[in-house]
Amino acid sequence: MPDDATRPAPGDPGDPPAGAAAEPPPGTPPRSGRRRGLARAVGWTAAALAVVLAAGAATAYGYYHSLRSDMVQHDLNAALDEEERPEKIGDDANILFIGSDDREDGNAAYGGKDFVGERSDSLMLAHISPGGRVTVVNFPRDSLVQLPQCDAYGDAEGTQGYYGMINAALFHGGPPCAVKTIESLTDVRIDHFVHLNFVGFRDMVDAIGGVPMCIPEPMQDERAQLDLDAGRQRLDGEESLAFVRARYEIGDGGDIGRIDRQQMFLGALAAEVTGGGVLTDPGRLDGLLRSISEHTATDRDLSLDKMVSIASTLSESELDEIGFYTVPWAQAPGDPNRVVWRTDEAAELFAAIKEDRDPDQEPEDGPSSSPSVPGAEPSPSPGAEPSSADGGGHIAPVALGPDGASEDGDEGVDGIEGRDATANPCEDGLGEGTGDDGR
Predict the structure, then answer these.
(1) N or C end: fewer C-beta atoms under 10 angstroms in the chain?
(2) Helices 237-245 and 198-207 meet at what angle, rounded to 10?
(3) Is 53 helix (H, G, I), strand (E, B) or coil?
(4) Could you say which residues of the chain have pLDDT below 50?
(5) Where are the alpha helices (DSSP H) in 213-329?
(6) Do the beta carbons of residue 304 and residue 322 sit within 8 Å?
Protein backbone atom coordinates (compact mmCIF):
# COMPACT_ATOMS: atom_id res chain seq x y z
CA MET A 1 0.00 0.00 0.00
CA PRO A 2 1.53 3.36 -0.97
CA ASP A 3 1.99 6.26 1.43
CA ASP A 4 -0.96 8.13 -0.11
CA ALA A 5 -3.49 5.69 1.35
CA THR A 6 -3.62 5.34 5.12
CA ARG A 7 -5.30 2.33 6.73
CA PRO A 8 -5.22 2.90 10.52
CA ALA A 9 -7.50 -0.10 11.07
CA PRO A 10 -8.94 -2.91 8.99
CA GLY A 11 -11.93 -1.98 6.88
CA ASP A 12 -12.98 -2.22 3.25
CA PRO A 13 -13.75 0.78 1.08
CA GLY A 14 -16.87 0.83 -1.02
CA ASP A 15 -20.73 0.48 -0.98
CA PRO A 16 -23.79 0.73 -3.05
CA PRO A 17 -25.61 3.99 -2.98
CA ALA A 18 -29.37 3.69 -3.51
CA GLY A 19 -32.49 5.76 -4.16
CA ALA A 20 -36.06 6.27 -2.92
CA ALA A 21 -38.55 8.22 -0.89
CA ALA A 22 -41.10 7.24 1.67
CA GLU A 23 -44.81 7.90 1.47
CA PRO A 24 -45.71 10.95 3.60
CA PRO A 25 -47.60 10.06 6.78
CA PRO A 26 -51.28 11.01 7.03
CA GLY A 27 -51.78 14.71 7.49
CA THR A 28 -48.52 15.68 5.80
CA PRO A 29 -48.97 19.01 4.01
CA PRO A 30 -48.31 19.22 0.25
CA ARG A 31 -44.72 19.84 -0.89
CA SER A 32 -45.14 23.58 -1.07
CA GLY A 33 -46.14 23.63 2.59
CA ARG A 34 -43.71 21.00 3.83
CA ARG A 35 -42.12 22.10 7.09
CA ARG A 36 -38.37 22.22 7.45
CA GLY A 37 -37.89 18.97 9.33
CA LEU A 38 -34.57 18.49 7.54
CA ALA A 39 -33.47 21.98 8.55
CA ARG A 40 -34.33 21.44 12.21
CA ALA A 41 -32.77 17.98 12.48
CA VAL A 42 -29.55 18.66 10.60
CA GLY A 43 -29.24 22.13 12.11
CA TRP A 44 -29.62 20.68 15.61
CA THR A 45 -26.91 18.13 14.93
CA ALA A 46 -24.51 20.70 13.48
CA ALA A 47 -25.09 23.04 16.40
CA ALA A 48 -24.58 20.27 18.95
CA LEU A 49 -21.31 19.21 17.31
CA ALA A 50 -20.13 22.80 17.20
CA VAL A 51 -20.88 23.31 20.91
CA VAL A 52 -19.10 20.11 21.89
CA LEU A 53 -16.07 21.03 19.82
CA ALA A 54 -16.00 24.56 21.22
CA ALA A 55 -16.11 23.14 24.74
CA GLY A 56 -13.05 21.08 23.90
CA ALA A 57 -14.41 18.02 25.68
CA ALA A 58 -11.77 15.30 25.80
CA THR A 59 -14.43 12.64 25.45
CA ALA A 60 -15.74 14.26 22.28
CA TYR A 61 -12.24 14.40 20.81
CA GLY A 62 -11.66 10.76 21.72
CA TYR A 63 -14.98 9.77 20.18
CA TYR A 64 -14.21 11.59 16.94
CA HIS A 65 -10.67 10.20 16.85
CA SER A 66 -11.94 6.64 17.29
CA LEU A 67 -14.43 7.10 14.44
CA ARG A 68 -11.95 8.73 12.11
CA SER A 69 -9.19 6.22 12.83
CA ASP A 70 -11.45 3.40 11.64
CA MET A 71 -11.83 4.99 8.22
CA VAL A 72 -9.42 4.40 5.34
CA GLN A 73 -8.13 7.81 4.30
CA HIS A 74 -6.73 8.67 0.87
CA ASP A 75 -4.62 11.69 0.01
CA LEU A 76 -6.10 12.96 -3.25
CA ASN A 77 -3.65 15.85 -3.36
CA ALA A 78 -0.75 13.39 -3.52
CA ALA A 79 -2.47 10.95 -5.88
CA LEU A 80 -3.71 13.45 -8.50
CA ASP A 81 -1.89 16.09 -10.53
CA GLU A 82 -3.36 19.47 -9.59
CA GLU A 83 -2.58 20.92 -13.02
CA GLU A 84 -4.83 18.31 -14.65
CA ARG A 85 -7.81 18.91 -12.37
CA PRO A 86 -10.74 21.31 -12.95
CA GLU A 87 -10.59 24.68 -11.24
CA LYS A 88 -12.45 25.07 -7.95
CA ILE A 89 -15.25 27.60 -8.38
CA GLY A 90 -17.42 29.07 -5.62
CA ASP A 91 -18.30 27.79 -2.16
CA ASP A 92 -20.33 24.79 -3.24
CA ALA A 93 -19.26 21.23 -2.37
CA ASN A 94 -19.06 18.30 -4.78
CA ILE A 95 -18.88 14.87 -3.15
CA LEU A 96 -18.47 11.67 -5.16
CA PHE A 97 -20.12 8.60 -3.62
CA ILE A 98 -18.52 5.35 -4.77
CA GLY A 99 -20.42 2.14 -4.10
CA SER A 100 -17.97 -0.75 -4.33
CA ASP A 101 -18.70 -4.31 -5.49
CA ASP A 102 -15.68 -5.56 -3.54
CA ARG A 103 -16.18 -9.15 -2.35
CA GLU A 104 -13.49 -9.37 0.34
CA ASP A 105 -14.26 -10.34 3.94
CA GLY A 106 -17.97 -10.08 4.81
CA ASN A 107 -18.87 -8.86 1.33
CA ALA A 108 -18.23 -12.34 -0.09
CA ALA A 109 -21.66 -13.37 1.20
CA TYR A 110 -23.19 -11.37 -1.64
CA GLY A 111 -21.80 -13.54 -4.45
CA GLY A 112 -18.72 -13.61 -6.63
CA LYS A 113 -16.22 -15.43 -4.42
CA ASP A 114 -13.88 -15.71 -7.39
CA PHE A 115 -14.34 -12.02 -8.15
CA VAL A 116 -10.99 -10.26 -8.66
CA GLY A 117 -10.54 -6.62 -7.64
CA GLU A 118 -13.38 -4.15 -7.24
CA ARG A 119 -15.43 -1.91 -9.51
CA SER A 120 -17.94 0.80 -8.78
CA ASP A 121 -21.37 -0.76 -8.39
CA SER A 122 -22.73 2.79 -8.15
CA LEU A 123 -21.31 6.25 -8.86
CA MET A 124 -23.14 9.35 -7.65
CA LEU A 125 -22.07 12.98 -7.55
CA ALA A 126 -23.76 15.09 -4.87
CA HIS A 127 -23.54 18.83 -5.51
CA ILE A 128 -24.36 20.86 -2.38
CA SER A 129 -25.11 24.49 -3.09
CA PRO A 130 -24.24 27.18 -0.49
CA GLY A 131 -27.97 27.88 -0.37
CA GLY A 132 -28.77 24.30 0.62
CA ARG A 133 -30.00 22.89 -2.70
CA VAL A 134 -28.68 19.37 -3.36
CA THR A 135 -28.28 17.92 -6.85
CA VAL A 136 -27.47 14.20 -7.09
CA VAL A 137 -26.30 12.83 -10.45
CA ASN A 138 -26.02 9.09 -11.10
CA PHE A 139 -23.52 7.77 -13.64
CA PRO A 140 -24.73 4.42 -15.04
CA ARG A 141 -22.13 1.73 -14.34
CA ASP A 142 -22.68 0.39 -17.86
CA SER A 143 -21.61 3.69 -19.46
CA LEU A 144 -18.98 3.47 -22.20
CA VAL A 145 -16.68 6.46 -21.75
CA GLN A 146 -13.13 7.58 -22.33
CA LEU A 147 -11.21 6.48 -19.23
CA PRO A 148 -8.14 8.62 -18.44
CA GLN A 149 -4.64 7.41 -17.80
CA CYS A 150 -4.35 6.46 -14.11
CA ASP A 151 -1.24 5.65 -12.08
CA ALA A 152 -0.84 2.50 -10.04
CA TYR A 153 -2.41 2.86 -6.61
CA GLY A 154 -2.41 0.37 -3.74
CA ASP A 155 -3.04 -3.05 -5.28
CA ALA A 156 -4.28 -1.49 -8.54
CA GLU A 157 -1.82 -1.52 -11.42
CA GLY A 158 -2.97 1.65 -13.18
CA THR A 159 -3.96 1.98 -16.83
CA GLN A 160 -3.43 3.88 -20.02
CA GLY A 161 -6.36 5.92 -21.26
CA TYR A 162 -8.87 3.86 -23.26
CA TYR A 163 -12.56 3.61 -24.16
CA GLY A 164 -14.43 1.26 -21.84
CA MET A 165 -16.89 0.93 -18.96
CA ILE A 166 -16.87 3.67 -16.36
CA ASN A 167 -16.99 1.19 -13.47
CA ALA A 168 -13.50 -0.10 -14.41
CA ALA A 169 -11.84 3.12 -13.15
CA LEU A 170 -11.97 1.89 -9.55
CA PHE A 171 -10.37 -1.41 -10.60
CA HIS A 172 -7.49 0.33 -12.38
CA GLY A 173 -6.53 2.98 -9.84
CA GLY A 174 -8.72 2.93 -6.74
CA PRO A 175 -10.76 5.94 -5.61
CA PRO A 176 -8.28 8.49 -7.07
CA CYS A 177 -8.84 7.04 -10.56
CA ALA A 178 -12.63 7.14 -10.07
CA VAL A 179 -12.36 10.80 -9.06
CA LYS A 180 -10.07 11.58 -12.00
CA THR A 181 -12.47 9.85 -14.40
CA ILE A 182 -15.50 11.85 -13.25
CA GLU A 183 -13.53 15.10 -13.30
CA SER A 184 -12.28 14.42 -16.82
CA LEU A 185 -15.78 13.62 -18.06
CA THR A 186 -17.67 16.45 -16.35
CA ASP A 187 -15.08 19.22 -15.88
CA VAL A 188 -16.48 19.51 -12.33
CA ARG A 189 -14.04 19.66 -9.42
CA ILE A 190 -14.58 16.85 -6.90
CA ASP A 191 -13.95 18.19 -3.40
CA HIS A 192 -14.43 14.94 -1.47
CA PHE A 193 -15.36 11.31 -1.95
CA VAL A 194 -16.99 8.60 0.17
CA HIS A 195 -16.31 4.95 -0.67
CA LEU A 196 -18.63 2.40 0.99
CA ASN A 197 -19.10 -1.36 0.61
CA PHE A 198 -22.05 -3.77 0.83
CA VAL A 199 -21.63 -4.59 4.54
CA GLY A 200 -21.29 -0.92 5.45
CA PHE A 201 -24.51 -0.06 3.66
CA ARG A 202 -26.37 -2.95 5.32
CA ASP A 203 -25.13 -2.05 8.80
CA MET A 204 -25.90 1.64 8.27
CA VAL A 205 -29.57 0.85 7.56
CA ASP A 206 -29.81 -1.52 10.52
CA ALA A 207 -28.25 1.09 12.81
CA ILE A 208 -31.12 3.52 12.21
CA GLY A 209 -33.78 0.84 12.61
CA GLY A 210 -34.54 0.31 8.93
CA VAL A 211 -36.08 2.49 6.23
CA PRO A 212 -39.84 2.72 5.57
CA MET A 213 -40.87 2.43 1.92
CA CYS A 214 -43.95 1.77 -0.13
CA ILE A 215 -43.36 -1.10 -2.57
CA PRO A 216 -45.87 -0.83 -5.45
CA GLU A 217 -45.85 -4.54 -6.36
CA PRO A 218 -44.22 -7.79 -5.20
CA MET A 219 -40.52 -7.84 -6.08
CA GLN A 220 -38.28 -10.90 -6.38
CA ASP A 221 -34.71 -11.17 -7.62
CA GLU A 222 -32.96 -14.41 -6.70
CA ARG A 223 -29.52 -13.14 -7.67
CA ALA A 224 -29.83 -10.14 -5.31
CA GLN A 225 -31.61 -12.24 -2.65
CA LEU A 226 -34.64 -9.95 -2.83
CA ASP A 227 -38.16 -11.07 -1.90
CA LEU A 228 -40.58 -8.29 -0.94
CA ASP A 229 -44.35 -8.13 -0.73
CA ALA A 230 -46.26 -5.13 -2.01
CA GLY A 231 -47.32 -2.32 0.32
CA ARG A 232 -45.86 -0.07 2.99
CA GLN A 233 -43.12 -1.73 5.03
CA ARG A 234 -39.87 -1.07 6.84
CA LEU A 235 -36.85 -2.57 5.10
CA ASP A 236 -34.00 -3.81 7.28
CA GLY A 237 -30.36 -3.74 6.19
CA GLU A 238 -30.39 -7.02 4.24
CA GLU A 239 -33.64 -6.15 2.47
CA SER A 240 -32.43 -2.64 1.66
CA LEU A 241 -29.18 -3.94 0.22
CA ALA A 242 -31.05 -6.47 -1.89
CA PHE A 243 -33.46 -3.76 -3.07
CA VAL A 244 -30.73 -1.39 -4.29
CA ARG A 245 -28.72 -4.22 -5.89
CA ALA A 246 -31.64 -5.97 -7.63
CA ARG A 247 -31.54 -5.69 -11.39
CA TYR A 248 -31.76 -8.81 -13.53
CA GLU A 249 -35.24 -10.06 -12.63
CA ILE A 250 -36.98 -6.68 -12.22
CA GLY A 251 -38.25 -4.43 -15.00
CA ASP A 252 -36.14 -4.76 -18.14
CA GLY A 253 -33.13 -6.00 -16.18
CA GLY A 254 -31.12 -2.86 -16.96
CA ASP A 255 -29.04 -0.54 -14.82
CA ILE A 256 -31.18 2.55 -15.53
CA GLY A 257 -34.19 1.05 -13.75
CA ARG A 258 -31.97 0.04 -10.85
CA ILE A 259 -30.67 3.61 -10.60
CA ASP A 260 -34.26 4.82 -10.37
CA ARG A 261 -34.94 2.44 -7.48
CA GLN A 262 -31.72 3.51 -5.80
CA GLN A 263 -32.76 7.15 -6.04
CA MET A 264 -36.16 6.32 -4.55
CA PHE A 265 -34.45 4.53 -1.67
CA LEU A 266 -32.08 7.44 -1.04
CA GLY A 267 -35.04 9.77 -0.75
CA ALA A 268 -36.65 7.43 1.79
CA LEU A 269 -33.35 7.14 3.67
CA ALA A 270 -32.97 10.93 3.81
CA ALA A 271 -36.53 11.28 5.09
CA GLU A 272 -35.94 8.69 7.80
CA VAL A 273 -32.61 10.10 8.98
CA THR A 274 -33.86 13.68 9.12
CA GLY A 275 -37.47 13.16 10.12
CA GLY A 276 -37.42 9.86 11.99
CA GLY A 277 -35.56 11.10 15.05
CA VAL A 278 -32.23 9.48 14.13
CA LEU A 279 -30.19 12.66 14.50
CA THR A 280 -31.64 13.40 17.92
CA ASP A 281 -31.32 9.82 19.23
CA PRO A 282 -27.78 9.33 20.66
CA GLY A 283 -27.96 5.54 20.37
CA ARG A 284 -29.10 5.39 16.76
CA LEU A 285 -26.82 8.27 15.75
CA ASP A 286 -23.82 6.51 17.32
CA GLY A 287 -24.74 3.28 15.52
CA LEU A 288 -25.04 5.12 12.22
CA LEU A 289 -21.68 6.87 12.60
CA ARG A 290 -19.87 3.72 13.67
CA SER A 291 -21.30 1.61 10.87
CA ILE A 292 -20.15 4.21 8.39
CA SER A 293 -16.68 4.64 9.89
CA GLU A 294 -15.96 0.91 10.03
CA HIS A 295 -16.66 0.30 6.35
CA THR A 296 -15.93 3.63 4.68
CA ALA A 297 -12.99 5.27 2.95
CA THR A 298 -12.77 9.03 2.34
CA ASP A 299 -10.25 11.63 1.31
CA ARG A 300 -8.16 13.00 4.17
CA ASP A 301 -9.60 16.48 3.78
CA LEU A 302 -13.13 15.37 4.70
CA SER A 303 -12.60 16.26 8.36
CA LEU A 304 -15.16 16.71 11.13
CA ASP A 305 -15.00 20.47 10.59
CA LYS A 306 -15.88 19.94 6.94
CA MET A 307 -18.73 17.63 7.89
CA VAL A 308 -20.11 20.21 10.33
CA SER A 309 -19.83 22.89 7.65
CA ILE A 310 -21.74 20.73 5.18
CA ALA A 311 -24.37 19.90 7.82
CA SER A 312 -24.81 23.61 8.53
CA THR A 313 -25.40 24.25 4.81
CA LEU A 314 -27.93 21.42 4.63
CA SER A 315 -29.80 22.90 7.59
CA GLU A 316 -31.42 25.27 5.07
CA SER A 317 -32.64 22.42 2.86
CA GLU A 318 -36.04 20.79 2.48
CA LEU A 319 -36.54 17.29 1.11
CA ASP A 320 -38.01 18.72 -2.10
CA GLU A 321 -34.73 20.58 -2.62
CA ILE A 322 -32.85 17.31 -3.07
CA GLY A 323 -33.02 16.56 -6.79
CA PHE A 324 -32.01 13.26 -8.42
CA TYR A 325 -30.79 13.01 -12.03
CA THR A 326 -29.24 10.39 -14.28
CA VAL A 327 -26.71 11.36 -16.95
CA PRO A 328 -28.65 11.62 -20.26
CA TRP A 329 -28.01 8.36 -22.07
CA ALA A 330 -28.67 6.31 -25.16
CA GLN A 331 -28.31 2.61 -25.90
CA ALA A 332 -24.90 1.64 -27.23
CA PRO A 333 -24.90 0.38 -30.84
CA GLY A 334 -25.33 -3.36 -31.03
CA ASP A 335 -25.27 -3.90 -27.27
CA PRO A 336 -28.44 -3.39 -25.21
CA ASN A 337 -26.41 -3.93 -22.02
CA ARG A 338 -24.27 -0.80 -22.52
CA VAL A 339 -25.10 2.89 -22.74
CA VAL A 340 -23.41 5.97 -24.16
CA TRP A 341 -24.04 9.55 -23.07
CA ARG A 342 -26.04 12.09 -25.04
CA THR A 343 -23.19 14.57 -25.12
CA ASP A 344 -25.01 17.89 -25.56
CA GLU A 345 -27.57 17.21 -22.83
CA ALA A 346 -24.95 15.74 -20.50
CA ALA A 347 -22.82 18.84 -21.01
CA GLU A 348 -25.80 21.00 -20.05
CA LEU A 349 -26.29 19.01 -16.85
CA PHE A 350 -22.62 19.28 -15.90
CA ALA A 351 -22.57 23.00 -16.75
CA ALA A 352 -25.51 23.57 -14.39
CA ILE A 353 -23.60 21.86 -11.58
CA LYS A 354 -20.44 23.80 -12.29
CA GLU A 355 -22.36 27.08 -12.41
CA ASP A 356 -24.32 26.14 -9.25
CA ARG A 357 -27.81 26.38 -10.74
CA ASP A 358 -30.87 24.15 -10.85
CA PRO A 359 -30.50 21.71 -13.79
CA ASP A 360 -34.27 21.95 -14.44
CA GLN A 361 -33.95 25.66 -15.23
CA GLU A 362 -32.17 27.26 -18.16
CA PRO A 363 -29.64 30.00 -17.38
CA GLU A 364 -30.92 33.55 -17.84
CA ASP A 365 -28.76 34.04 -20.92
CA GLY A 366 -30.14 30.91 -22.64
CA PRO A 367 -28.65 27.44 -23.11
CA SER A 368 -25.08 26.99 -21.99
CA SER A 369 -22.36 27.10 -24.57
CA SER A 370 -20.44 24.38 -22.79
CA PRO A 371 -18.54 22.05 -25.10
CA SER A 372 -19.60 18.45 -25.60
CA VAL A 373 -18.77 16.05 -22.82
CA PRO A 374 -15.02 15.34 -22.86
CA GLY A 375 -14.30 11.66 -23.11
CA ALA A 376 -17.60 10.79 -24.79
CA GLU A 377 -15.87 10.27 -28.13
CA PRO A 378 -14.10 6.91 -28.36
CA SER A 379 -10.36 6.52 -28.72
CA PRO A 380 -8.31 3.38 -29.28
CA SER A 381 -7.89 1.02 -26.36
CA PRO A 382 -4.42 -0.17 -25.33
CA GLY A 383 -5.57 -3.78 -25.41
CA ALA A 384 -7.46 -6.26 -23.30
CA GLU A 385 -8.24 -4.00 -20.38
CA PRO A 386 -10.79 -5.39 -17.88
CA SER A 387 -13.85 -3.26 -18.47
CA SER A 388 -16.93 -5.43 -18.09
CA ALA A 389 -18.76 -6.01 -14.84
CA ASP A 390 -17.05 -9.35 -14.31
CA GLY A 391 -13.61 -8.01 -15.17
CA GLY A 392 -13.17 -9.80 -18.47
CA GLY A 393 -13.26 -8.80 -22.10
CA HIS A 394 -12.47 -5.72 -24.11
CA ILE A 395 -15.21 -3.34 -25.21
CA ALA A 396 -14.53 -1.91 -28.63
CA PRO A 397 -15.17 1.78 -29.35
CA VAL A 398 -18.63 2.61 -30.67
CA ALA A 399 -19.79 5.23 -33.17
CA LEU A 400 -21.87 8.01 -31.65
CA GLY A 401 -24.62 9.91 -33.42
CA PRO A 402 -25.05 13.70 -33.73
CA ASP A 403 -25.93 14.34 -30.08
CA GLY A 404 -23.93 11.56 -28.55
CA ALA A 405 -26.74 9.08 -29.15
CA SER A 406 -25.88 5.78 -30.71
CA GLU A 407 -26.55 5.66 -34.43
CA ASP A 408 -28.73 2.55 -34.11
CA GLY A 409 -29.68 2.67 -30.43
CA ASP A 410 -32.80 3.87 -28.69
CA GLU A 411 -32.96 7.21 -26.99
CA GLY A 412 -32.84 6.90 -23.23
CA VAL A 413 -33.23 10.49 -22.07
CA ASP A 414 -34.73 13.47 -23.83
CA GLY A 415 -33.75 16.60 -21.96
CA ILE A 416 -32.80 17.21 -18.35
CA GLU A 417 -35.47 16.50 -15.79
CA GLY A 418 -35.06 15.13 -12.31
CA ARG A 419 -37.15 14.11 -9.32
CA ASP A 420 -36.95 15.29 -5.73
CA ALA A 421 -36.60 13.25 -2.55
CA THR A 422 -40.32 13.41 -1.72
CA ALA A 423 -41.23 11.03 -4.58
CA ASN A 424 -43.37 8.06 -3.55
CA PRO A 425 -42.79 4.73 -5.38
CA CYS A 426 -46.43 3.66 -5.01
CA GLU A 427 -47.61 6.88 -6.66
CA ASP A 428 -44.73 7.78 -8.96
CA GLY A 429 -43.71 4.31 -10.12
CA LEU A 430 -40.52 2.39 -9.62
CA GLY A 431 -37.72 1.45 -11.95
CA GLU A 432 -38.85 3.49 -14.94
CA GLY A 433 -35.98 6.00 -15.25
CA THR A 434 -35.68 9.36 -13.52
CA GLY A 435 -38.80 11.23 -14.60
CA ASP A 436 -42.55 10.74 -14.80
CA ASP A 437 -42.32 9.80 -18.49
CA GLY A 438 -39.29 7.54 -18.19
CA ARG A 439 -36.71 10.31 -18.28
Answers:
(1) N
(2) 130
(3) helix
(4) 1-46, 48-57, 103, 106-108, 110, 369-371, 375-414, 432-439
(5) 237-245, 255-275, 282-294, 304-314
(6) no
